[in-house]
Task: inverse folding
């Protein structure tokens, strides 16, 4: 990590929420700043930069967040491991308006805790409950009821109940649902686990016939897949539900931000179980600014 960078991460309980103290001390001695975000409400965080005083940020006031991040004036590494979607998604949106390079960091878990329930399709007990579908801060959309050509694209994880809930809530025909499974997965067996966990809702309207695949650990893979779906299906209005891997969620958010008139993000706000995941399998870093710059350059060449 560049010495002049700022590492942004969420405070939280459990080993996955913690930053290694020795690593942090080493990075700080090299000049890296650490910005710790502590949730203080559904869309509010207390931001503490190094030894400085704490600033409360309202993530519905993105202009204020952009101003705060711009004042730091350093390349940003946003660690989304411990932050809920309602916090990291608007932070990502704000960070893209800051004139500094942005990387996203995700520490993928080493293992998920298997469910104690002897129930078909329930392999991992990841969420305590679902709060319900509502817009993420900064991503509210006017109803697209006038759109005749709508597709629902759920990015699947292990929890089939979430897919069923999304399909029921958006109230679009099952024939318009194009699910995405993370293939290859972080581990060889994870795609099979995702399929098994979603087998019942995938049978509705023969959804399984329309399943597409994108690398589970790559936001840019799912971004490209969403572009392919939009092109193949005659430029539909896409309703994207990022209910699977965090990197897929990043790709969905980026796609929505770069296609604001044709994409809607739908999220169900699950309450995760604190002990659902253990350890760190790998640390993934994504060059968001570089990807968007390369994409803009490619589009410019096509236009000319």
Result:
């Amino acid at each position: 990590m560049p010495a002049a960078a700022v590492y942004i991460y969420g405070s939280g309980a459990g080993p996955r929420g913690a930053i290694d103290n020795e690593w942090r001390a080493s990075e700080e001695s090299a000049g890296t700043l650490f910005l710790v975000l502590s949730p203080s409400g559904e869309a509010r965080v207390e931001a503490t930069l190094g030894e400085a005083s704490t600033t409360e940020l309202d993530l519905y006031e993105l202009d204020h967040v952009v101003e705060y991040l711009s004042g730091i004036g350093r390349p940003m590494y946003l660690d989304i491991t411990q932050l809920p979607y309602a916090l990291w998604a608007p932070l990502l949106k704000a960070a893209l308006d800051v004139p500094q390079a942005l990387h996203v960091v995700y520490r993928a878990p080493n293992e998920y805790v298997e469910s104690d329930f002897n129930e078909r399709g329930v392999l991992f007990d990841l969420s305590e409950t679902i709060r319900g579908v509502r817009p993420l801060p900064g991503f509210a959309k006017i109803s697209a009821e006038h759109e005749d050509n709508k597709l629902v694209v759920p990015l699947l994880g292990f929890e089939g109940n979430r897919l069923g809930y999304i399909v029921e809530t958006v109230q679009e025909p099952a024939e318009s649902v194009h699910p995405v499974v993370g293939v290859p997965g972080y581990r060889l067996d994870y795609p099979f686990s995702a399929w098994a966990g979603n087998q019942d809702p995938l049978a509705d309207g023969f959804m399984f016939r329309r399943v597409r695949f994108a690398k589970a650990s790559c936001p840019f893979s799912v971004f490209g897949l969403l572009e392919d779906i939009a092109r193949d299906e005659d430029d539909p209005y896409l309703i994207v539900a990022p209910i699977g891997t965090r990197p897929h969620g990043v790709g969905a958010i980026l796609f929505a931000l770069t296609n604001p008139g044709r994409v809607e993000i739908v999220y169900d706000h699950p309450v995760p179980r604190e002990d659902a995941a253990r350890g760190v399998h790998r640390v993934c870093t994504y060059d968001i600014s570089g990807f968007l710059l390369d994409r803009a350059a490619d589009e410019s060449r096509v236009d000319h």
Q: What stands out?
A: The mean pLDDT is 91. The chain has two domains: 6-110+279-303, 112-275. The domain at 112-275 is CATH 3.40.50 (Rossmann fold).
